[in-house]
Write a structure and sequence with these properties.
By secondary structure, chain A is an all-alpha fold. Chain A is 78% helix and 0% strand. Chain B contains 15 helices and 16 strands.
């Protein structure tokens, strides 16, 4: 009897702790949609880093040339 | 929250039941959102991280107030909030291309701002976006959760189904394919989108990845469990959102140069006649002072703007996706805040869809309206669509108290055009019969002939 009460309480405690803190996600992300992101994460992340730096480089030169022209760009 | 009594006056909103984070309900005509205990951590983070204020300041999230009223379900409730009310709830199958595109871009902008503050969108439903004061805003305050680095975006599938698939189909195949959203309530299935898109989209990296490969991945891993190891860095997540944003930004559709393009200039009014009609509509509206106006058959919104500029919250409905698109572009250009263009076929208006046919409401069930504009419309209903005048009258009188309606006689060149290709079976389509039929439901207050035309503009009020 005692054991069953303890088991019930600990199951409940586990339920509450996982439910209280777990993500509120209620949507089925879809296995295929989830796995696609994991498979291509490195590729897309890498491309994003290159894109970000490329923009910074382009931005640096644009800023530079606009200064030479006496442009009023900030 | 100490008060826990739920009265019979609490009414759950039928669209809000899937997410256990909380529920919408109405009480005494006001709209509230119950926040459940299960969502406390996420709500607190939203408010304390500054994300809420940033989003509200950027007009990306509907503002709300925390209120002390009894929740809908006291057992699960933690707090009740009162969101600012959106004037008219519309659905993605009623939006033009640019409206859906702006809603998609707002969703991605919200996700970027959320990630910057340690949160993420846990859903990306197009139904969570509404046009509020002319801008697409998120209306579901409970759409955020604390971001845990390493996890992929849980709402990615939904974003592609609700936004990217319909937008790419509209831009690259046919704008009318947006109507698939009316059939598929959780967005267009990606395998269907993949089949319908032109083959050349496989050469576009973003569409190849987010539609074609995505559909293939769904098929390939359909019965797989989610992998335990989570390995999507925050940089990769930001890259993913950036890639979706680029894909959306690259899609364009404009009615100019398409079959829809030439329609708008085809009216038979003289400039003076058009001005006279505008003046009459304005005069009638000033007489009745409506707060809310629906313009049915609004075309690009010329007369809707007479109402909106007089301060009425106006919805401009039209059957033509091109007209709605041009109207929305105009609204955006002018920063108009009380005019909402929407797509609607009045002979087949948006039905109630989803669970119990109550999740997304039918066109006529969503709001009450003070005045209806039905200008250059009656001949399309009565002659092009064979709707008897009595049915037009009894339908319109259910929608609102006042009716501003234009009668266009058979001798008018626009009616002659409609009759050119068919037998004239409309012996009852006369001005006298029109007045007699409408007088059964309405009191006719005014009838003014429009200058340089054979047309008459009426102001009518529903009989009590």
């Amino acid at each position: 009897m005692t054991i069953s009460v303890i088991t019930t309480l600990s199951t409940l405690a586990l339920f509450i702790s996982t439910h209280g803190k777990a993500n509120a996600a209620y949507l089925d992300p879809g296995s295929g949609s989830f796995i696609l992101q994991l498979l291509l994460a490195a590729l897309v992340g890498g491309a994003f880093i290159i894109k970000t730096y490329w923009k910074k480089i382009i931005g640096f030169f644009r800023k530079d040339s606009s200064r030479e022209k006496g442009g009023d760009e900030e | 929250m100490t008060q826990v009594r739920t009265s019979s006056a609490h009414h759950p909103v039928e669209a809000s039941f899937r997410d256990p984070s909380g529920y919408l309900f109405s009480l005494d005509g006001d709209l509230y959102r119950q926040v459940n205990s299960i969502y406390q951590e996420h709500y607190t983070r939203l408010m304390d991280s500054g994300l809420y204020q940033t989003l509200v300041d950027s007009e990306l999230l509907v503002p709300h107030q925390e209120v002390e009223i009894a929740p809908l379900d006291p057992i699960s409730a933690w707090r009740v909030i009162k969101p600012e009310r959106v004037e008219f709830i519309s659905y993605p199958y009623e939006w033009s291309f640019s409206q859906l595109k702006d809603a998609a871009l707002s969703t991605l902008e919200i996700q970027k701002l959320a990630l910057a503050r340690g949160m993420t969108l846990k859903d990306s439903s197009a139904y969570n976006i509404q046009f509020h004061r002319g801008k697409p805003v998120l209306i579901d305050t409970l759409s955020f959760e604390v971001y845990s680095e390493g996890e992929p975006w849980v709402a990615y599938r939904q974003f592609c189904q609700h936004f990217l698939a319909p937008l790419s189909l509209m831009a690259l195949r046919d704008v009318r394919l947006a109507q698939l959203l009316r059939i598929y309530i959780d967005g267009i299935p990606l395998d269907l989108a993949s089949q319908l898109l032109p083959g050349k989209t496989r050469l576009d990296i973003a569409l190849q990845m987010h539609i074609h490969l995505h559909a293939a991945s769904q098929k390939r891993f359909a019965s797989s469990a989610l992998p335990k190891e989570r390995q999507m860095s925050k940089t990769a997540m930001l890259g993913w959102i950036d890639s979706l944003e680029s894909a959306v930004n690259k899609l364009h559709w404009s009615p100019a140069g398409t079959a829809w393009g030439e329609y708008y200039t085809e009216t038979n009014y003289t400039p003076a006649g058009l001005e006279h009609k505008k003046a009459l509509v304005g005069d009638f509206l000033r007489q009745i002072q409506p707060k809310r106006v629906w313009d049915l058959g609004a075309n690009t919104g010329l007369f809707s703007r007479v109402a909106s500029q007089l301060g009425a919250s106006t919805v401009a409905f039209d059957i033509d996706p091109g007209a709605v698109e041009l109207n929305y572009q105009e609204c955006r250009k002018n920063g108009e805040t009380n005019l909402l263009p929407l797509l609607l076929d009045l002979t087949n208006p948006s039905p109630g869809i989803g669970w119990g046919n109550r999740e997304r409401l039918a066109f006529g069930e969503r709001a009450s309206v003070d005045a209806i504009l039905a200008l250059a419309l009656i001949h399309h209903l009565a002659i092009a669509n064979n709707v008897p005048l009595g049915r037009v009258s009894s339908y319109l009188c259910e929608l609102g108290r006042w009716l501003i309606i234009e009668f266009i006689p058979k001798e008018d060149s626009q009616v002659q055009r409609l009759l050119a290709s068919r037998q004239d079976i409309f012996s009852e389509y006369t001005q006298a019969h029109f007045e007699e039929i409408f007088a059964a439901n309405y009191t006719i207050h005014r009838a003014e002939a429009i200058q340089d035309s054979l047309r008459t503009l009426y102001l009518m009020e529903v009989r009590h």
